[in-house]
């Protein structure tokens, strides 16, 4: 009975080419004769290869789906011409790797670094240049990133002869094939550093502290990051440096709080000043400002100073400074002050307990209803 190629690969008839390829690779690792100890291991692997040969080729798959004739596939693995070996690339890739153009490079890019810098709110408003101390990896000053003691040179690896890879014969259904793998002695570099630099332990870089001048633009906010390309850790063996990211934090201010690009402040105004009107001064980041409190000002009113807030980070101009007025009601009165307030209340026709709210509350209405009975 002819083998069902879909069943051999363990896929549905609607499987995509990618699904077929994944299924083949998965089963090939498990059924290879060097791994599979079954008596018919070579036959299982052969059928698997035949199934993949047919189903991975759109034309052959269509012929197989239409006629069910396995003759739509190449005649075994020994077929003549390049067409008989279409699936072997995957076999070699699965077991022997894709090969390499030569020895690996010791050079590696350095890691990116992240540090946090705390600034004052004023610095966020106008921008500032700060000196930032960073502990990082710098190119070794002794070997200049070569990883070797000055005056010495690496030696060619005797195992791989500088290729970075070694080869060994391996049995397969094809006969003896050559397996290529990374050289264990030189780790694939092709050479060996027998006299490494003592300053950096053969890494080509060493830990150091350095000071950077960082320009922090106006308008930055908490959590913003400044990207400094090439200021991160130096790479291994003279490799390029990574990047440095400066994350901004902002100290709380005793007077101003920030909401977006606007600044907010609260000023307490005595009750009499709010009633009669006055001027108050506020020390802003732009200097002292005089603010008019108009007669009859109520608690919660806001005075706005245009363009006195935080600069727009990606644009022109600045936000506003919003000053919230809080009218202070005295809590402790002398006898004389109490009498004066009573006189004022009488003069204004006010009675204690009366509400100035136009809409009376439920309890006030109940009291009026009870008094009218």
TrEMBL record:
- Where does it localize? Cytoplasm
- Tell me which residue ranges form CR-type zinc fingers: 127-209
Q: Example GO molecular function term?
A: zinc ion binding
Write out the GO cellular component annotations: cytoplasm
Query: Which family, according to the similarity comment?
Result: Belongs to the DnaJ family.
Question: Which keywords are on file for this protein?
Answer: Chaperone, Cytoplasm, DNA replication, Metal-binding, Repeat, Stress response, Zinc, Zinc-finger
Please list the residue ranges annotated as the J domain.
Answer: 4-68
Biological process (GO) annotations held by this record are:
DNA replication; protein refolding; response to heat
Query: What Pfam families does this protein's entry cite?
Result: DnaJ, DnaJ_C, DnaJ_CXXCXGXG
Q: Which SUPFAM superfamilies match?
A: Chaperone J-domain, DnaJ/Hsp40 cysteine-rich domain, HSP40/DnaJ peptide-binding domain
Q: What is this protein called?
A: Chaperone protein DnaJ
Residues the record lists as binding Zn(2+) 2: 157, 160, 183, 186
Tell me where in this chain the CR-type domain is found: 127-209
């Amino acid at each position: 009975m002819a083998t069902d190629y879909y069943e051999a690969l363990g896929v549905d008839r609607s499987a995509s080419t990618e699904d077929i390829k994944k299924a083949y690779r998965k089963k090939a690792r498990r059924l290879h004769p060097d791994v599979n100890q079954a008596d018919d291991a070579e036959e299982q692997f052969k059928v698997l290869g035949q199934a993949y040969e047919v189903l991975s080729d759109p034309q052959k798959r269509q012929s197989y789906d239409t006629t069910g004739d396995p003759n739509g596939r190449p005649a075994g693995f020994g077929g003549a011409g390049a067409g008989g070996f279409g699936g072997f690339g995957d076999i070699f890739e699965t077991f022997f790797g894709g090969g390499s153009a030569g020895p690996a490079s010791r050079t590696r890019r350095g890691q990116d670094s992240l540090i946090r810098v705390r600034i004052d709110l004023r610095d966020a408003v106008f921008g500032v240049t700060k000196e930032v101390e960073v502990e990082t990896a710098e190119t070794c000053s002794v070997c200049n990133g070569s990883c070797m003691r000055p005056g010495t040179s690496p030696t060619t690896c005797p195992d791989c002869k500088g290729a970075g890879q070694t080869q060994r014969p391996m049995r397969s259904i094809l006969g003896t094939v050559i397996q290529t793998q990374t050289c264990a002695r030189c780790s694939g570099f092709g050479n060996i550093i027998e006299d490494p630099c003592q300053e950096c332990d053969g890494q080509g870089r060493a830990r150091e502290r350095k000071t950077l001048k960082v320009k922090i633009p106006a308008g930055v906010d908490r959590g913003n990051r400044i990207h400094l390309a090439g200021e991160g850790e130096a790479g291994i063996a003279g490799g390029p440096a990574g990047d440095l990211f400066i994350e901004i934090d902002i100290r709380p201010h005793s007077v101003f709080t920030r909401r977006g690009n606007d600044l907010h402040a609260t000023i307490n105004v005595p009750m009499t000043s709010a009633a009669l009107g006055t001027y108050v001064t506020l020390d802003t980041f732009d200097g002292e400002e005089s603010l008019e409190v108009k007669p009859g000002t109520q608690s919660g009113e806001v005075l706005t100073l245009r363009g006195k807030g935080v600069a727009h980070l990606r644009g022109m101009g600045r936000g506003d400074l919003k000053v919230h007025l809080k009218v202070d009601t005295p809590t402790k009165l002398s006898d004389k002050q109490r009498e004066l307030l009573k006189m004022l209340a009488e003069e204004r026709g006010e009675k204690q307990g009366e509400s100035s709210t136009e809409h009376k509350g439920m309890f006030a209405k109940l009291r009026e209803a009870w008094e009218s009975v």
